[in-house]
């Protein structure tokens, strides 16, 4: 009797696993029905309260609305990048219909695998691809790959403008995880936005040299605050969370800008004294709405309109990027200032304001010309 009961319980567990998605497994428990099988490869871990977590939320939305057609899983590679290439190859070899990955560090791995697995669809976010110029840099003849580019320069321009509106010193700072073109693009937009409001503003550019070292983030932010920068844009995944630890140790008048998710609202939701303190110092967050990008990509994949073999820029138009306006924002900014923020957003969408970009610039332009001009 006990043996029969054990068999029945095992069967029920198998059926339950086959009926749901959104989990992290080793690949052997995925369903054998006709649903599209999608895996989201995270070159890090969940818990960053921003970029990777937003992507996971997009999977949750797909499960909710398309679960009868799509099965999803996610895999966390951790921050040991020496294992990423082999782990990614092993995951792709499992035979997924759609593989989702992103960031500069994963580009070569996914490009090579997209060539090796032409029948697999790949979605790549946060990097531009060369699909058309065989003589150009990093050319990949991959008509099975869709590249979604979030216009971080657009949202960062708005965040920079907001920082300059509140800054009493006229000195604001950007601290990024690692120096690459996408992070440079954040800085370009942020700096141009600050200068749009205050042409005499000084905008520092610093690097934490990590996306997961919270201590490095705290140390970098502390150094910037102590150097007289009163608002810091913390743009570096989990490392950037250290900036929030730093700002609450600073005197009144020091603030922070979050990234990728509404980090101020997240801290407020914790219901703790520390969370409230961090929320009250977060003037806004430049949201890169990866969740929205994933969801829309699936919707379009299902109806046959997703443009594989192309780069697609997703910006303020459609709210693929946005700035958060939460309780702290409303307390710190006047109604007139918030109306100006809305106008800036409208002007970027219409083309009346060019936020600038780090993409397509000549070698050396970023440091030799742009950063130097913002000091």
Count of helices? Answer: 14
**Assigned CATH superfamily of the largest domain:** Response regulator
Largest sheet: 6 strands, parallel
CATH architecture of the largest domain: 3-Layer(aba) Sandwich
| End-to-end gap | 78 Å
Overall pLDDT: 91
- Number of E-state strands: 12
What percentage of amino acids are in beta strands? 15-25%
Helix content: 40-55%
Seen as an oligomer or otherwise, the chain set is: single chain
Rg from C-alpha positions?
Answer: 22 Å
CATH class of the largest domain: Alpha Beta
How many distinct folded domains? 2
N to C succession of SSEs: HEHEHEHEEHEHEHEHEHHEHEEHHH
CATH fold type of the largest domain: Rossmann fold
**What structural class do you assign from the helix and strand content?**
alpha/beta
Shape: globular
Enumerate the spans where pLDDT stays under 50 for 5 or more consecutive residues: 1-20
Lay out the secondary structure.
Elements: H1 2-18, E1 36-42, H2 51-66, E2 70-76, H3 84-92, E3 98-102, H4 107-116, E4 121-125, E5 145-150, H5 152-166, E6 171-176, H6 181-197, E7 202-207, H7 214-226, E8 231-235, H8 237-247, E9 255-259, H9 263-269, H10 273-280, E10 282-288, H11 290-303, E11 311-314, E12 321-323, H12 327-332, H13 335-350, H14 365-373
Parallel strand pairs: 1-2, 1-3, 3-4, 4-5, 5-11, 6-7, 6-8, 8-9, 9-10
Antiparallel strand pairs: 10-12
Helix pairs in contact: 2-11, 5-6, 5-13, 7-8, 9-10
């Amino acid at each position: 009797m006990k043996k029969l009961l054990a068999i029945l319980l095992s069967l029920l567990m198998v059926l339950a696993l086959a009926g749901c998605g959104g989990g992290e497994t080793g690949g052997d428990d995925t369903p054998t029905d006709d649903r599209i099988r999608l895996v989201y490869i995270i070159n890090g871990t969940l818990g960053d309260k921003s970029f990777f977590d937003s992507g996971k939320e997009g999977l949750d939305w797909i499960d909710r609305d398309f679960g009868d057609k799509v099965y999803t899983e996610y895999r966390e590679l951790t921050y040991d990048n020496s294992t990423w290439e082999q782990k990614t190859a092993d995951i792709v070899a499992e035979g997924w219909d759609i593989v989702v990955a992103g960031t500069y560090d994963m580009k070569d791995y996914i490009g090579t695998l997209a060539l090796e697995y032409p029948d697999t669809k790949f979605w790549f976010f946060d990097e531009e691809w060369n699909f058309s110029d065989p003589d150009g840099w990093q050319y990949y003849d991959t008509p099975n790959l869709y590249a979604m580019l979030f216009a971080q320069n657009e949202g960062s321009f708005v965040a920079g403008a907001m920082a300059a509106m509140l800054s009493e010193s006229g000195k604001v700072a950007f601290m990024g995880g690692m120096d690459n073109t996408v992070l440079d693009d954040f800085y370009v937009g942020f700096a141009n936005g600050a200068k749009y409001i205050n042409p005499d503003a000084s905008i520092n550019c610093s690097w934490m040299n990590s996306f997961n070292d919270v201590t490095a983030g705290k140390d970098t932010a502390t150094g910037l605050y102590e150097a007289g920068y009163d608002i810091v844009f913390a743009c570096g995944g989990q490392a950037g969370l250290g900036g929030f630890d730093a700002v609450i140790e600073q005197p009144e008048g020091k603030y922070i800008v979050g990234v990728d998710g509404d980090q101020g609202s997240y801290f407020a939701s914790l219901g703790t004294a520390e969370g409230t303190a961090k929320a009250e110092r977060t003037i806004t967050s430049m949201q890169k709405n990866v969740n929205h990008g994933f969801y829309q990509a699936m919707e379009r994949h299902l109806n046959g309109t997703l443009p594989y073999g192309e780069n697609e820029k997703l910006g303020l138009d459609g709210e693929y990027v946005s700035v958060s306006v939460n309780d702290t924002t409303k307390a710190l900014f006047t109604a007139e200032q918030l109306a100006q923020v809305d106008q800036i957003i409208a002007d970027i969408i219409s083309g009346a304001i060019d936020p600038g970009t780090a993409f397509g610039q000549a070698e050396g332009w970023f440091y030799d010309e742009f950063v130097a001009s913002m000091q």
